[in-house]
Amino acid sequence: MNASQPEDEKTRKSASLRDFLSPAGVITAVNAGAMSITAAAQAALTQSENAAIARGLKRQDPELMDQLIEQYQHRLLRYLLFLTGRRDLAEDLFQETWMRVLVRGTQYNGKARFDTWLFTIARNLVIDLSRKRTMASLEEMSEQHEDDRPFEVVAEGPSPFEQFRSSENSAEVGEVLLTLEPSHREVLILRFYDEMSLEDIATMTRAPLSTVKSRLYRGLASLKPELERLRSRAALSEAR
């Protein structure tokens, strides 16, 4: 038995080497390496871009500001529209956000993603305005006793966003989003419209990751029935 063990080990190693050197094995290894290199390259590129933005903001580079406004204006205005529900307020806050970026640009050090820093400024302005107007603010919503336990939506096909986000339904989705709780609405916007990671959303909203996940799941769960009610009312109106 002892004499056969080295031979068995050689056989196993040989088979393992053959599997690795087979066309499928080589392709798998190359793909895995390429994915790793791509992820690392993307991370390095993002860090380089953030550092360049930080240097430009410290110099108050007007060309950089123009580029940033052009790149982020649609995302930022959409975010503010959904948070406030009013275009006039959203546009005022949009202008104020960019003024803060210009004035406080030296505070951005490039370590965090620029869009996370930008949206945090906008969010804080919404909270400040809500306090002044004695409205229920996002901060007050965050301070409620939320259930942070994982809340899973039953997966029966595409999620509500995947199902209803086509161009012909975008107006319906926008209308229904405004009926959801502000904290749930905010997470849905940042996750599905702005494609932020849950970790970045947690950083931006200063909420635990478990809370962000709970808001996301509960927002998704509320979205579908609200859309169905909206369509039922529309169908009844057309039938009259």
Characterize this entry briefly.
The chain has 240 residues and is an all-alpha fold. The protein contains 11 helices and no strands. The protein folds into 2 domains: 95 residues, Orthogonal Bundle (Rna Polymerase Sigma Factor, Chain: A); 80 residues, Arc Repressor Mutant, subunit A (Orthogonal Bundle), CATH 1.10.10.10.
Description:
The chain has 240 residues and is mostly helical. It has two domains: 41-135, RNA polymerase sigma factor, region 2, helix turn helix motif (Rna Polymerase Sigma Factor, Chain: A, Orthogonal Bundle); 160-239, Winged helix-like DNA-binding domain superfamily/Winged helix DNA-binding domain (Arc Repressor Mutant, subunit A, Orthogonal Bundle). Helices cover 76% and strands 0% of the residues. It has helices spanning 4-21, 23-58, 62-84, 87-103, 114-132, 138-143, 160-164, 170-177, 182-193, 198-205, 209-239. Helix 3 (62-84) runs antiparallel to helix 4 (87-103). The longest helix has 36 residues, at 23-58.
